[in-house]
Amino acid sequence: MNVTVIGTGYVGLTTGVSLAFIGHSVTCVDIDERKIENLLAGVMPIHEHGLESLFEAVRPRLHFTVSYAEAVRNAEVVILAIGTPAREDGSPNLSYLHEAVDQVLGSLAGKLTPTLLVNKSTVPVGTGDRLAEKVAARGLSARVSVASNPEFLRQGRALSDTLYPERIVVGGKPEGWRTLRELYLPLLEQKFEEPFDLPRPRGLAPVKFITVTLRSAELGKYAANAYLAMKISFINEMANLCDRVGADVIDIAGIIGTDTRIGGAFLQAGIGYGGSCFPKDTRALHYIADANGYDFKLLSAVIEVNRSQKFTLIDKLRSELIDFRGRKIAVLGLTFKPGTDDLRETPSLPIVEALLAEGAVVAVHDPVALDKARSLLPASVQASSDLEETLQDAEAALLVTEWPIYLALDGHRLRELMKRPLFIDGRNALPPERRIHLDYRGIGTGAAE
Ligand code: NAD
Fold this sequence. Notes:
Elements: E1 2-6, H1 10-21, E2 25-29, H2 33-40, H3 51-58, E3 62-65, H4 68-72, E4 77-80, H5 95-108, E5 115-119, H6 127-137, E6 144-148, H7 158-163, E7 167-171, H8 174-189, E8 208-212, H9 214-245, H10 249-257, H11 278-291, H12 297-309, H13 312-321, E9 328-332, H14 348-357, E10 361-365, H15 370-374, E11 382-383, H16 387-391, E12 396-399, H17 404-407, H18 411-417, E13 422-425, E14 439-441
Parallel strand pairs: 1-2, 1-4, 2-3, 4-5, 5-6, 7-8, 9-10, 9-12, 10-11, 12-13, 13-14
Helix pairs in contact: 1-3, 9-11, 9-12, 11-12
The structure holds nicotinamide-adenine-dinucleotide.
Active site: 277
InterPro entries: 6-PGluconate_DH-like_C_sf, NAD(P)-bd_dom_sf, UDP-Glc/GDP-Man, UDP-Glc/GDP-Man_DH_C, UDP-Glc/GDP-Man_DH_C_sf, UDP-Glc/GDP-Man_DH_dimer, UDP-Glc/GDP-Man_DH_N, UDPglc_DH_bac
Pathway: Nucleotide-sugar biosynthesis; UDP-alpha-D-glucuronate biosynthesis; UDP-alpha-D-glucuronate from UDP-alpha-D-glucose: step 1/1
């Protein structure tokens, strides 16, 4: 099929490359001219496993442009993958999405063949209906229909999640479901040759194709993220309790996670969730509930627990050092999780700010995001790509992102480098055998080890 993807961010580029991989001819559009120029030159705007090689492999079926008219002329399906960032009050900012839709509809005016306008961005319930009203207002309803196709990929595994999904959710009318079924058929049937660096995960269940209304698809996406966020906040509250009663949250997660009604995923205690989705989407769902006269109490608690959880690292540090003034603290990892260079809503930045506010000398390291981070970090922060330099003479190391490079750190070497080998593990991720020689503190792992 001829497909156009509007927006070439994490979702749009992953979608475009994956659709080209399963045989479609894909045109990607962005308003960011530099991004398009870079993509034309083969320069990736994001860090994602397997992206560059798959991009190269499908290059003949991938087109890039800043021109909507050129992009939608032959498109049977136009997919919107535009950012919907949170406003101050938590409501999602839909202005970029509406701007893009206006551009698309303006360019569709003279087109005689049918077009399915598919929204992949995470949006409040009713947005699809607003888009259909826009289509109608331009007299395009006979040829343009609207569908919702929420995205569930995880950054860091974006391509694998897209090629091997658990479910594909489509909202709208049966004609739209049919077109999207055809679009995704190779993924639904898993009929394609696996890319060598993106192997099929083991034990994959058949892909579920879930057809619902526009409104259920839109709300379902928020429900999925809010539920996962709830699991994280729940286990973090258990961790905080564990620290007070001398139990180990890893044992607790094992006990509850083996119950198939609960499931073991998302029960890793730590400093909470970050990134471009969970914080924004939980706040957006809360806003949607509020705007519809519903007090979503559980969600308020999930959000509040996560807001404060990152500072448990600082609390633990304070109980060891008492006073941070003039003391060097190494912060390991800046991105909100490993495998991505995304710094949106990462807990590392508030942690760095809190350390600086208490007079600490802060040194940071990250294997991929240092350059991106420089403009976000206060000038006094020592940012180095040399891990040993970051740890040299530090009185504590705070593990914020569980990048493999940190999990391979040798306790013996840390003892030599650091003034005090105090290692506070915000992700409970350092393997037990690497904790020897360190003053190791986890989150909810009971009494000091
Ligand atoms: P992003 O910020 O990485 O990318 C958005 C892209 O849209 C940018 O390249 C931007 O330049 C472009 N853009 C903005 N206005 C435009 C316009 N008028 N015309 C053309 N391009 C325009 O965002 P993202 O992370 O890919 O997220 C996109 C949507 O998908 C959001 O609603 C997000 O909540 C949702 N989502 C994201 C993820 C994720 O992991 N990132 C997962 C699931 C869902």
